[in-house]
Amino acid sequence: MVSRCSFPITCATFRVPAAGRSSITRGPKSVADGTPPVLTAGVHIGIRTGLGAGFWRLWPASALSDLGYGIGVAATPLLAVSLTDDPIPVTLLSSLLFLPWLLFALPVGALVDRWDRRRTMALANSARALVIAGLTVLIVTDTVGIGLLYVAAALLGTAEVFYDQAARAILPEVVAPDQLDRGNSWLSGAEMVGQLFVGGPIGAALFAWWDASPFAGMAIGFAVSAAVVSTLPRRSTPVPRAGTSLRSEIAEGLRWLRGHALIRGLTAASALTAGLGAMFNALLVLYALQVLRLPEAGFGILLVAGGIGGVAGALAATPLVRLCGRSGALAVGACLSPIGVVVIALVDTTWIACLLMGLGTASITVWNVVFMSLRQAIVPERLFGRVLGVYRTVIWGGIPVGALAGGVLAEFTSVSTALLCSGAGQALVAVRIVQLLRRHREIVDAGVTRPTDP
Questions:
Q1: Is the residue at 331 inside a domain?
Q2: 218, 220, 226, 232 alpha-carbon torsion, rounded to 10°
Q3: Does residue 36 have a pLDDT over 50?
Q4: 290 or 15, which is more confident
């Protein structure tokens, strides 16, 4: 079970009093595995430990955006199923939502390192509002078809690439390094509540009442979020070094990721998990309607269960890091999700499926929060958009392949068989993740901070 991750972050700058600036000390360089030097933070004296006013200004905008997206999480596949009950066209819709990550994540990551991220986020959400408003008109006039739905999905996915790349790159500038886990936990909690706990059931219920109403709600949510984001203070835009091209800047991000053994290994493992998890996500609506035999509005029950689990995972992430370190928290997140998927594939009882949905989503949220904080702590700020672009390309780029493979497998076998294959594959990848975490445990648990840019 792989949750879409969009952690909208603010654009303000974290300010440190002159008397309380932290000293940054360069740690020993690891020669054996090619890992860049690890930096450790000195003593922070007089530094505010809260998340800051800028963070809390953006948080409502983030929640509104997640709510609008959450309504569509339930309504869009229901609309597709109302147009066709063939598994392949239904899962193709999921593929088109994520295909832009494969095509555009790299160049967009480089552009995000150049542009004002606040404005990028606002324009992306404005574009999503316009596309969904047009889709609403097509539904009302009864002129929507599966082909037009595919076009809308591709446009929405492209806008999401710009929004998510810009949003992810900002958090380290807003909060102190030791607050990254906490900030990501709050944002992840808002995401889960908006997308699943609140947005999911609202979207399913509204679709059952009138198929156009959830899409109108989505358009409003994205429009309001864009308006709120646009009120945030401007961020100084990084200026590319003289004589560099977009291609050379992308290559710089690729070289950094290739040279960092830990992040490179976890990125590869995450890509496999994301593709296998996409098989589950793309077939979830068919599992609910055909295996559990729930009505359309009942599909929201599974999303509520996932939302509750996601909130629990967001709340548990920071305490779990304190209890067993980042490596232990990441291992928990990697291992619990496959268990839930495998058992779900074997049951047809709604309450058991709901419990397992909660367990799986909680474990994914823990992984997302902790791994995002680890990357934000390690990757240099001036490279973060590009390194994230590489990461998103391999992660989200594999999702269309997994979603389509799940549809083909379900077509020739059954929905439950496809889900079982998804869980078994994720379990194998989890074993590899645990091996990586044990090998690099000192780096993961060191509480590293962002390196100073050269």
A1: yes
A2: -120
A3: no
A4: 290
* Residue 446 or residue 196, greater confidence: 446
Judge contact between 101 and 393, C-beta under 8 A: yes
Q: Is 18 contained in some domain?
A: no
Report yes or no on 17 lying in a domain: no
Structure tokens at 318: 């920071």
Of 336, 328, 329, nearest in space to 366 by CA: 329
pLDDT given at position 68: 83
pLDDT in tens, 75-91: 888 888 888 877 788 87
pLDDT at site 124? 93
Structural domain count, the chain: 1
pLDDT at 446 over 90: no
Residue 440 backbone dihedrals phi, psi, to 5 degrees: -115, 30
Q: What is the pLDDT of residue 163?
A: 86
- Could you write out the three-class secondary structure of the chain? CCCCCCCCCCCCCCCCCHHHCCCEEECCCCCCCCCCCCEEECCCCCCCCCCCHHHHHHHHHHHHHHHHHHHHHHHHHHHHHHHCCCHHHHHHHHHHHHHHHHHHHHHHHHHHCCCCHHHHHHHHHHHHHHHHHHHHHHHHCCCCCHHHHHHHHHHHHHHHHHHHHHHHCCHHHHCCHHHHHHHHHHHHHHHHHHHHHHHHHHHHHHHHHCCCHHHHHHHHHHHHHHHHHCCCCCCCCCCCCCCCCHHHHHHHHHHHHHHCHHHHHHHHHHHHHHHHHHHHHHHHHHHHHHHCCCCCCCHHHHHHHHHHHHHHHHHHHHHHHHHHHHHHHHHHHHHHHHHHHHHHHHCCCHHHHHHHHHHHHHHHHHHHHHHHHHHHHHCCHHHHHHHHHHHHHHHHHHHHHHHHHHHHHHHHCCHHHHHHHHHHHHHHHHHHHHHHHHHCHHHHCCCCCCCCCC
Structural domain harbouring 64:
53-232+245-444
Mean pLDDT of the chain: 79
Domain harbouring 416, CATH code: 1.20.1250.20
pLDDT at position 239 over 60 = no
44 Cβ contact list (under 8 Å, min separation 6):
20, 22, 176, 178
Tell whether 5 is covered by a domain.
no
The whole-angstrom separation of Cα 26 and Cα 352 is: 50
Q: Which candidate, 215, 196, 226, places its Cα nearest to that of 67?
A: 196
Contact yes or no for 5/65 (Cβ under 8 A):
no
